[in-house]
Amino acid sequence: MDPYFSYRDSGLYCEDVAVARLAEEFGTPLYIYSKSAIVAQLDGLHAAFAELDPLVCYSVKANSNLSVLKVVAERGGAFDVVSGGELRRVQVAGGNPRKTVFAGVGKTDEEIAAALEAGVLMFNVESEAELDAIARVASAMGRVAPCAPRVNPDVDPKTHRYISTGKKESKFGMHIERSLALAEAAAKMPSVSLIGMHMHIGSQITTVEPYAGAASKGVEIIDAMRRLGHPVAWFNMGGGFGISYRGGEAKPVAEFARAIVPVVRESRCRLILEPGRVVVGNAGVLVSRVIFIKKSGEKTFVIQDAAMNDLIRPALYESFHRIWPVSPRAGATAPPDDFEAAIAGTTACDIVGPVCESGDFLAKDRALPSIERGDLLATFSAGAYGMVMASNYNTRPRAAEVLVDGSSAKLARRRETLDELLAPELVEL
Ligand code: LLP
């Protein structure tokens, strides 16, 4: 267990706050985030890449709660956004648009104009058509748009197929030759300036080799861009650093740095990173309450109040999240370090939600110690791509979110009400 989420005599704590107390106060399902864990990850990234004077652009899509963004902004942090909505969040949270990169394959003219107005650091450009649109909007506004082509370095990041982006046959970025053709075209456009080069090869990457391979291709591309006259000053390596969902499977960021820094150094650029998951993933848990325990034949189903609409990752990617009672009953121990090993005194359960889909599960055949109706469960590593991907499927209000800082806990988002859910719908009754 890490220092931010630890079991004490009475059960699970987030920093110095009892998780059970928060569940009583704010109800379940409830996302709980540790501020210190987020800060420690950001500091770790800065330290590991210090030599390249990095701009660590926190990827807002991983967890866009305003309180989380404020923590990043207060540390002087930078941001990676993919929509006008995310840019608005950064601005509201006190983040600096001049330290914000704007990515995404489908930017609309309105979003481009809003980003130029806000003064974003640069646009990550995914296609020729997008470059044309940016040039046109910038020219109409009398501006020069700073841009970085997103190059697809054709490396295999060896991750889940839904979150792999660096291979040739991906919807993201452009092949090397195509990006150089785009750089040639951009050289003739007075309203754009290519000040950077961007790549992002995938997410939840647990080995360093794909980064090393991609980085050395990046250095060559930057040389070629400079020969075309572009003032390339930023090497954007994207995000993707993996985290340990089970325990021990991901490399520490220092190892990624050891592979990336010596290569990027050759480009004489400042480094941009766009980490999302590694900043917030292990800084959050999802707490739920057991509604029923149901036996069907040989199987035991633990039906609890967090569903696929709250955390879709297990259903969508068959991803693994550790799950353990918040207050293990007498005789049950703290969670094991190795969830794959046989655990004495446990029963294999399917941990499911109330949504009407067989895909609605948080875990299958998962070892749990004895639990009863009303007990609380903690689903770990839920800080990234949890609440941001939540929906109202089955007309379920989305969970509340709490940010813990030492011994204080603040509501970061209150639970939605049914009235709020229905409010936008127009019907004559
Ligand atoms: N930069 C770009 C251009 C991206 O597309 C992404 C993630 C990131 C940065 C941040 O990647 P990270 O450091 O978080 O790996 N919903 C999926 C993950 C989707 C990632 C999408 N792009 C999941 O739950 O695993």
Concise synopsis of the structure shown:
The chain has helices spanning 19-26, 35-48, 66-74, 84-92, 109-118, 128-140, 176-186, 209-227, 253-265, 277-280, 313-317, 418-422, and strands at residues 5-8, 11-14, 17-18, 30-34, 55-59, 78-81, 100-102, 122-125, 145-149, 192-194, 196-198, 234-236, 270-273, 284-296, 299-304, 323-325, 347-352, 361-368, 376-379, 400-405, 408-413.
Give the SSE layout.
Layout lengths: L4 E4 L2 E4 L2 E2 H8 L3 E5 H14 L6 E5 L6 H9 L3 E4 L2 H9 L7 E3 L6 H10 L3 E4 L2 H13 L4 E5 L26 H11 L5 E3 L1 E3 L10 H19 L6 E3 L16 H13 L4 E4 L3 H4 L3 E13 L2 E6 L8 H5 L5 E3 L21 E6 L8 E8 L7 E4 L20 E6 L2 E6 L4 H5 L7
Parallel strand pairs: 4-20, 5-6, 5-13, 6-7, 7-8, 8-9, 9-10, 11-12, 12-13, 15-17
Antiparallel strand pairs: 1-2, 2-3, 4-14, 14-15, 14-19, 16-19, 17-18, 20-21
Helix pairs in contact: 2-9, 5-6, 8-9
Please describe the structure with a list of short key phrases separated by commas or semicolons.
TIM Barrel, single chain, Lyase, Ornithine Decarboxylase, Chain A, domain 1, binds ligand LLP, 21 strands, 28% helix, nine-stranded parallel sheet, 429 residues
